[in-house]
Each structure stands twice: as structure tokens, then as C-alpha cells.
Fold each of these.
Amino acid sequence: MIGETGEAVALEDFIQAVQSQLDTAQARMTLKAQNDRLPLTFAIRDISMDLKAHLELNQGELRIRPAGPSDKDPTVLHLVFTAITKPMIEENAVPLSVDDKNDVPLSALGDELDPAERRRLEGIGVRTVEKLNELERRGLSNSVGRITRLAPDKLEQVLARASRPMVDDVSRDGADDGDQADALRQRLRVKGRNLLRGGMPPQVTIAGRPVDIVQAHDHELVLAPDRDQLAGQMSLTHDPRAPTELWFDQAPRRALSTPPSNGFDGGQP
């Protein structure tokens, strides 16, 4: 019986369960041959099975439910499991990419994509924001929209959101000692992703006023704010349709003045 109560299960879960048990059987036969020092033994080569089941499509996932004895016209799945070698596995397997801390999943776009739209993009191999940006740079936006049935304006909105600056941290260079010369040299460091587009930095404003950019990299901007721009609302804009806005506070903290001594030294009168 598939599932604990005959409920439908994902097709890949069923196949993986069969594979796991075949691997276990193969390992046991190998250990038996090694421990008993048998000159001749047996191995699993091919297994064929016909599975009568009903197919269900649930949110883009194919699930199978076993057919009962009285069910009419069930679907017959003819499955063949065969032995393959390690080089064959490596040749045909999908390469697993190394996790990149800068690779942001599509789910990070929030409500811009509903689950069905995200699954359609994942179905053509688009699982991260960077991959979506890459398709835009290659001029494939129209093809992606047609294949995934995303409306052109919706796809443009998603692409604008995906390529907008993403800020992870805002910090300040300089001391809090109140030195005026040092205050004039204070810099804000904005760290994140997508801070450059086409090699150009975004327009940056703090409290509604422009801020000079003294250094620009894709993962960091160095800003030269005025003395009254070390706190407030910061806006970074490549595309007016998708600005990045955040509140920050890097204003110097002034040390509390030492209260005057009252002459009491704790001694006895």
C-alpha cells in the first residue's frame, strides 16, 4: 500500500523509496559475499514493475494513489530499475551548484510572485534572483514571460524588484569623540547586493537630499554625507519603479558629561 492510509504520494518519493530499498538489498548481499567469502554470488541487475494507480496533479506536483481491486480504468505505470555505474551517474546527474551567500531565492521577492508563478519560473531553471537578472541582461525577458505565462507588465515589475539595490548593513567610519575635522571626513558604508547596474551606482538620497558617492562596488558603496545626514531615511534608486528605502541611525553618540563633585569623599565625620 502506498502511503500509510492509501493516500496519494509524490511520484519522486515513491521512486526514491524503491531505490533506497534496492540499495539496502545490494549492500546486504555485498556484505554477505564478503563475510562468507563466497566465490560466486548474485546481484540485482534489472527490476520491472507495473503499478496500477490514479494520477493526481496538485499545485504542479504529480502524485500517485494506488488503484483498488474494483477501480476502473486505472493508469498503468511501467517502471524499470536497472543497475548503473558511478561514471554513468556522474555523467547524467544534474550538477549541484555551490551555495553562494549572494544568491537570493525568488521567495525573497515577497508578494511580487505568488507560489504558482514561482513554480513556473523554477520549472525553467530560474530559482534565484541572480538567474532572473541574468536572463534580463541576455534579453530573454519576453521569452521567459511567454513560456511562464507571466504578463509583460508583471514580469517587468518582478525584474525591476529583482534588480533593485538590496541593503544588508549601513555603518559609519569615524569616531564619536566630537572632533570637528573628523566629522567632516565621516563616511557611510552601505553593504548589500545589486548596488551597481551596468557599472553605474544608484542615485542615493538621505532625508530627501542627494549624497555624494566616493567609492562604488557591486557589494559596497562609500558615501560622503553632510553632518546632518548620518541618520534618517535613505533611498537608493536604479529604477524609479522599484526604489530601495530604509531607515538608519549612525549619528555620533555624545558622551554624558561628568557631574561635578560634591566634595563628599566617603570618610567619617
Amino acid sequence: MNTHLQKIKEYLRSLKEIIKDLIIRFYKIGTGETKLTRDFIFLFASWFSLLIFFSFFILAEQNPFRLLVPFQLYSYPSLDHREPIVIYISNGEGEQIPIHRKVLKQDETGAFIYQIVGEVGSPPYFDSVEALAKDGKLFSPKKLLDIRFALKQSWFLQKDSKLVIDWNVQILQDVMEKYRLPRTKSEETGDSEDENPNAPVDTITYYSAGTETGPKESEEVVNKRKILAMESTIRALNASLFENFKDLKTIEHQFSGELSPVYHWDSLSTLVTRP
């Protein structure tokens, strides 16, 4: 035990002498009694740089040896694996335009069709590309119905020239029941005579029939507008499918389930050919 204490005292004594010698040396350098040598400047700069280097990593709580492993401190930039596809958007009044959207394109045909249905029913981006001027009028895209969950299955016939899509009618009717109709400019002002034809339609503020706020409409008018929204959605979907499947010539829509007499389903085109 005494031997270990004696060794510790000797180490402390030698460390004290080294520190004392360094203090005297720095003092003489500071007072000009001793001139700086190149070896001293090199060693001082090296140790000081090493101290600063490790201090930064200690403050950042990072391992400095990560610099020795490539791409550990800075990784490769993430690549955009999305591919542009053509999607048609509609203004709800029979006009529609094609736009390009980047998506993680699915390799399987059925999954890709489901993806297209979801993009058609997704909200418009309201950017400069999706608000193009058409025939001197501002094109104001509307929020179409999100009917992807009503898609039961789809399959190709006649060597991929005909596509059959089977829809769940009950889910389609539920989507139309929850769909909030866009409020038009004339409905906000209450005067359709002074309506500006170039004025954009308010596609952000929505209302549903029967609520305390918003204009009151008969149930028949509301149901007619909802089936028109469904028709616009189907038309935009057909155009998008024709654009993404070049060999496709005919699309047939099948509605499985009991059709509600509230909506005029006969207005929907069940068989569509490429224009």
C-alpha cells in the first residue's frame, strides 16, 4: 500500500515539475528572454489544433472517428424516386385539363389503377400549373370525389384493350352523402346577373345541404349536383386512364349493389371509348 502511494507521489511530483517548467518557459517567451524556435511553434500549433478539434466534437456530442468512415457524417443526398404521370383535373362544369404529378408509381397494374383513382380524387394543388388560363378564363379546379375505397377490382380484357372496373355502389353513395359541394360566386353574392364570368370559384369554402350556414337548396337540387360531381370524377378518371395506358381503347364501369333511386345513376356512362 505504501509502495503505491509512493509511486503516486512520485508521478505527481514529476508532473508538477513539468508544469512548472512549462510555466517558466512560457514566461521567458512572453518577456522576450527566450526566442521562439520552429519546433516549439509547430508542437504548440499542433496540440492546440488537436484540442480545438476534439472540443468541437465533445460539444456536438459526436464521435470524431466517424470522419474516418466514408458517408457516416454526411450521407448521400436522397434521390426522388417519384415518376410523373398524367392526371386530369376538372372544374366541375365539364371542362378538364391534363396536369403532371409525381407519384411513387406502382409496378402492379391493379395497384397503379388504384393509385390513379386516388390522385383524381385528391385535392387540387392550387399552383400556377393547375390554374392555367383557358379560353381567356381562369381555370379553377374543383375537389372531386375520392372514390378509391369504392374500387372493388379491375381487370383487362381483349389483350389489354378493354378495362373493366367494378365499383361498390354502397361506398359510392356514402362518399356522395359526405361530399361537400363547393360554394359558387353567385351563391355568395346572391345576385347571378352581376356575376363576373372570369371570377374564380371558391373551392376552399364548402357547405352541405341542411346546415344552418350557407344557402338553402332543395334536396333534389343537392342530389343532382352530387351526381354531377360523380360524373365529373368518372370523366376525369377515364381521361387519366386513357392517358396512362396507351393500348387501352374501352373502359367499362360496373356498379355492384343496389342503386339508390335518390341519385340518377343512368346519367353516368358505363361504357366509354377512347376519343
Amino acid sequence: MPIGIATTVRYRLDANRLVFIHNNLPRNIEDELVPSVVASTFRDLVPNYTVREVFAVKREELRCLASKEITKKLDEDGIVVNEVMLRDIQLPPEYSQGLQGLLLKEQEPERMGVETEIQAKQVKIAELLAEAAKVQQIKRAEGDAGVRVLQAKAEADAMQYTLPLKQKQIEQSRLEAEARKEATIKNAEASAAAKVIDSKAETERRKLLADAEANRIRVVAAADSERLRSEAVALRQNPLLINKIMAERLSDKIQIMMVPMDGKFFLGDMLRGTAGGGAIAPPAATAQDDPAEDSAVSSASR
């Protein structure tokens, strides 16, 4: 089964053997000498190992043995080897797939162990986090309790100063309420007294108005009685006044003129009476009751 091995060799020429190198070795060392020595060394060593050992298990062991053999062989030619490295190992595709599956199966327990360790560490981390959270909660609760205690103490200290003030405020409120109550009572009493006074004044006013109205009625009645009495006396003395009164009530255009029985009247008065379109009427009647008094004659003009 062919196997490809990629190798890198770091080397240098021995400065003390340059003459030997120049006389005995080919000019192109990196192409003619070193690759052949490396290839022959690996061809001698690789058959002693299985493919699996070369690929994974004993890869470092193979590299160390090859490095020693290559260093020994090249040292004889004046070439100092610094390092031999295995860059890559190329396997056939079928064997490579099978080997990879086998390696994966062999690595499965290791992977499970690693995952188990990781999960155990995660559990441990979770436990530590839970413990830390618990401690934080305890510390926070203790801090909150301490804060509440301090607040309670501060409130208690403040109450020592605010309680007297509250009592004074309560006393002041009570006094203000009593003052408002007293003021309300006084206002109610004053309002009631004012209403009583207003009622008495209104009663007195109405009484005075009633008295004044009664007095006016009495005066008017007395005046009417006196007027009627005077009219009765005048009518009894001068019956002709009835015609005058009736004429005044019948029309405002009737003019009444009273003249004495002896004919003593002024010509101007007569002329003024005739100029208005009226005529002077002759005496209508003669008073028989009292010969000493003058008779009244009425004349109407329209």
C-alpha cells in the first residue's frame, strides 16, 4: 500500500569541512544528495511500522528515528542537520476513510470523557453561581433589613420632634374649629336678630301705611261729606245749580253764566259771550224761598 510522506529538513554546511564538501560532494546538494538520503532513511524505517502507527500512534517516534539517521548520514558528508519535520502523511483514500472512522471510534471515549468533565465543570460552575447568588441574596436581605432598621430609628428620632408639632397642629385645628363654630353661631344669631328687626320694621311700616291709608280714607270721606253737605246747602239755596251741574257733566262745550236778577252786568261780558257764538238767555226762574238773595239765571250757548 503506497504511503506519501512530506518531509522538511533544515540543514547547513559545516564551515570546518568546506574543502571536503567542495572536493567530494556534488554542486547541487539540495537536489542530488539530501533528498536521496531522506528518502532512503524513511524507506528503511517505515516498513517497521503499521500504517496506523505511522499516521497517528508512533508518528513522533518515526520522526525522531528518521532525524537521527539523517543527521548521522549527512554529518559524514559535512552537512549539519538542524531539524527534521514531517509535514504530511498521505494515505490511500479507502484506508484514510477507514482509519479516520477507527480513530473517531477510539477517540469517542476520550471525547465522552472530555464532555463529562466539561459537564461536571458546568455543574460545578452552576453550583458556585447558585451559591454566589444565595450569598448575594442573603447580603442584600441583610442590607435591606439594616436599611429598614436605620429608617425605623430615624423615624423614631423624628417622631420625638414631630409629635409635639403634630399635637400643636391638632390643638390649633381644634381651636380654629371652635372659633368657626362660635362665629357661625354668632352669625346665625345676628342673622336671626336682623330678620326679627326687619320683620318688626316691616310690620311697623305696614301698620303705618295702614294707618295712613285709613287716615286718608277718613279725610277723603270727611272732605266728601263736607263737600256733599256744602253742595246740599248750595242746592237748597240755589236749585238752579242742578242745571249747571248736569250741563257740566253732559258736555265740556256748554258755558254757564250766572247774572244777577237786577240786570247789573257789564256790556263787555255780554259782548264776549256773544262773540263766542253764544246767546244770552233770559232769566229762567225766580227764587221764591229767599227774596233778599239774588236769583241766578243760566243761559247756554253752543
Amino acid sequence: MLSSKILAVLSAFVVIINGQDEKEEIRIFSKCAKENGFDLKDLRKQSDIKELSQPHLCTIKCTWEKRNHLKNGKIDIKAVQANQKFLSMMKDKEGFIKCMSAVDNVKACDDVKKILNCTEKFRMHIIEECVAEAKMDLKEFLRYAHPPGKEEKENIPENILCTEKCILEKRGFLEKDGTFVKDPAKYKQIQFQVKISEEFMKCLQAIKVDKCEDMKKVFACTKKYV
């Protein structure tokens, strides 16, 4: 489903995608999860920093270290600044970098919360806003976005479809007339954990999303090309 592809980044405290190959990113995160006894299925259960388990926090710390974003307890600010996909999530990039620059001594897994607090403070809260507009509970949306098994696309509740549509609109991927943007550069910011193909972009650009129900057309493109 589309949301499961973008939530990993938009939720901010799960995975930070940088310019490397996305499959490698997933491999690193999965390896760290295994090393720290974190069940990836629990991603959908933990939607707030305060709720993150020790294995989850240790997995995030491990991932940052293996990417060389965190070295000897210190954040590599240059590496963070070079991470344009991640910075594109921030409503105040300068404020975020300043906050991260002040983070020090990230030695224990609990210390990762210092990083996450900066992320939470300065990121765009698009998912939360869209969930609220759809009159949903965030945990309900995250449970659906990270389903334990494959669910039929025909049975997607309308509030989920509306939330998905809202996310695309607020992220700037939909024009006012409901069509997808034409600028190829914009698609580089799409936080799918896969490579965005030209065929996939063409499929999306042939769609007009006027109603929430039209999101099923987006899912059809995703299923075909992702």
C-alpha cells in the first residue's frame, strides 16, 4: 500500500533515508533490528516517542551508527545536512540543524530520544494533520498502514483513502486540479523505499485524484510498478 511506503520516513523516528540505495537502507535497519531483538511488526504499534521500546531505540541508534550519522556518541552534522531527502521533511531546516548540533553524548539507547525530540519539534506533522482531518486515531491509521498481512485494496475504508489523499496534497505531489505534478525533481523527494521508475511516474501523471476513492488508482500504479 502507498502509505506503508511513505510512513517509514514521514513518521520521522523509524528510518532516515539518505542518498544511498534504499534497499541497503532497509537491509541496515533490518540487521540492526535483528541485533537488538526488535520485531519489525511492532513499528505499527509505536506511534509516539514516549512509547518506543528499548529494542526500538537501540535499533535506531544502531542504524544511525552504521550509516555513520552517529560516531562515538556525536552526530555528524555534515552527513545530516547532506541528507536532502530527510531535510525535505523539516518545516524549519535551520532550526532543526541547530537543534541537532546541540545534541551530544548519544551513548545509551535512551539518548536517541535527544535526536528524536529535534526531529519531532521541527518536522512537518503532515500525517497527524491528515489523520485529524479524517477524524481518525493515529494508531488506527498506522495499524492499517503497516498491516500484518496483505489486505485487499478494494476493502480500504474511506477515511484511510482520504488520509492518503491528504498526505499527497500536503506533500505537494497533487496539483489543485487533482493531477500529479509533472516536475521530475519532485519525485526524488517521494519517500517510497523503492526506486521511482519513469513508468511509475507516467502512470501517476495519467491519474486525476478528485475524490478519496480515486486513491485506488494510485494504489493500482503502485501495485504495477513498485
